[in-house]
Amino acid sequence: MTPADAARAPIEAVWRIESPRLIAALARMVRDVGLAEELAQDAFVAALEQWPADGVPDRPGAWLMQAAKRRAIDQLRRAERLRRKQEVVGRDAEAAEELAAADFEAALTEEIRDSLLRLVFTACHPVLAPEARVALTLRLLCGLTTEEIARAFLVPAATMAQRIVRAKRTLAEARVPFEVPSGTDLAPRLGAVLAVVYLVFNEGYAASKGERWMRPELVNDALRLGRMLAELAPDEAEVHGLVALMELHASRMPARVGAGGEPVLLLDQDRARWDRLLIRRGLAALDRAQALAGPLGPYALQAAIAACHARARRPEDTDWARIAALYDALAQVAPSPVVELNRAMAVGMAFGPAAGLELIDQLVDEPALRAYPHLPAARADLLAKLGRRLEAVAELERAAGVSQNGRERALLQKRAAALQD
Amino acid sequence: MRFMLFIHPGLPSSTEENSIPSREAIEAMSRYNRQLHEAGVLLDVNGLHSPNEAVRISFHVGKPQVVDGPFAETKELVGGYWIIDVKTKAEAIEWAKRCPIDAEGPMIEVRRIFEISDFPPELREAVWLG
User: Fold this and answer.
1) What tens digit of pLDDT does each residue of B76-130 get?
2) Residue B91: which of A13, A274, A275 has the nearest Cβ?
3) What's the Rg (C-alpha) of chain B?
4) Mean of the per-residue pLDDT values for chain A?
5) A216 to each of A205, A219, A254, B18, B113, how far by Cα in Å?
6) Cβ distance A135 to A163 under 8 Å?
7) pTM of the predicted model, to two decimals?
8) Nearest residue of A to residue B32, measured between CA atoms
9) Per the CB < 8 Å rule, is A17 touching B91?
10) Interface test with A, best of B3, B30, B43, B88 (most A CBs within 10 A)
11) Largest CA distance in chain A
12) pLDDT > 70: percent of chain A
């Protein structure tokens, strides 16, 4: 670490902690997320210039907020003067000055909590393309730099910077209000937010691109986001369901990679390596989801399935009948060919490979699964159990042919080779 | 990466007083814990009973020897811990600095927790975590 890096590290740490609520509070003031982010960024740059010489202030969050608010008020005054010339009355500047007087660091007030929630919904707004939602969410709510996000998604930094700039412009042009949706809008918009978090998680948990099988940084970012969201919207069962699902899946990470970096499948994992702390947290989050009224949603149901695995100390202790029933319920609320595939696998485990194969065979012509390596891989598994080895080998080769991940491909080829011995 | 923050209250050695902290201290610490929780970084937190109740098992040539508290040197006794999951060591330090301690003497120690990937590959299979 160079001396310059050493001086930067504590300031970046402050930024990581403070930037979400800083941007949220500013966005509430200026009603423009892009502008709020720029104001916060300017304050951060000012800190990078001043703190190495003057030392980190005792209340760094308040310092950043003051610096950003001064700029915000200047901006609003200029905008208002312009508006007055056009004879339109605005009260924003007054409201901003009122806000500036409030104590920023007095824990999470209801107002900051509400501002953060608005920020979440704005960053995940449906006017944005899914990849723009992801980039903006990581930038605004996880305090990640553009370079970090670019690295995580294996795209050039310039591309990611463009994506973020365009996303902010889209929000401004569409005049997306800085608010929490209400009424019938809430459910689908919350769904969009959870989808963004889960997408980040999955890109880290089962990387769709590249040679690495997992990217733990993204998993941790998603977990942090999810846990944050669970506190911002504690009455939403699906938020807890998603957190439970992520904690339980993440608990398996230490066992999911072999010594050579290759993936290890669930039933082959050394369960002694599962992270008990994350399992405990996952089960607690699932309890919270189940304690709230209403039927379980797709995330809570998937978490309940993951919990069945987490509770089984040995693979043979797994309650497959319960898992099959949970997939059945999942297929009702969130029907998809992938869910059907998993249901077929669970049925195969609970009631024998022939029963599973019967269900899977109904899926082979499913267009959505054509390039999905898990279908032929799952079919191969059942065929092998039924002693139909040659067919199983062919299916594994087919799976390897459509896999996009180098590590996964190698594993599939290895399984095919093992069956041929 | 995960860190364990140990708090060493640095109590005077022959403290007879009840080790339950004041309401104000509890409230301040609860606010801090809430902040960690709301930021999505807190994995676990616990406080420990008075070191007067502590017992040490020391090993001499592999033989355990049980020694009851209280102990003379109390400066380094642990009073509680947090487990947090953060992006960098600097972030762990920044969180530790925010701990609401309103006294002279306490100290927080920041320690990184071992991950399976910290072990050399040939040793990983020997690791059993529960």
Assistant:
1) 788 899 999 999 999 999 999 999 987 778 899 999 999 887 888 778 777 776 6
2) A13
3) 17
4) 89
5) 7, 5, 10, 44, 15
6) yes
7) 0.87
8) A107
9) yes
10) B43
11) 84
12) 92
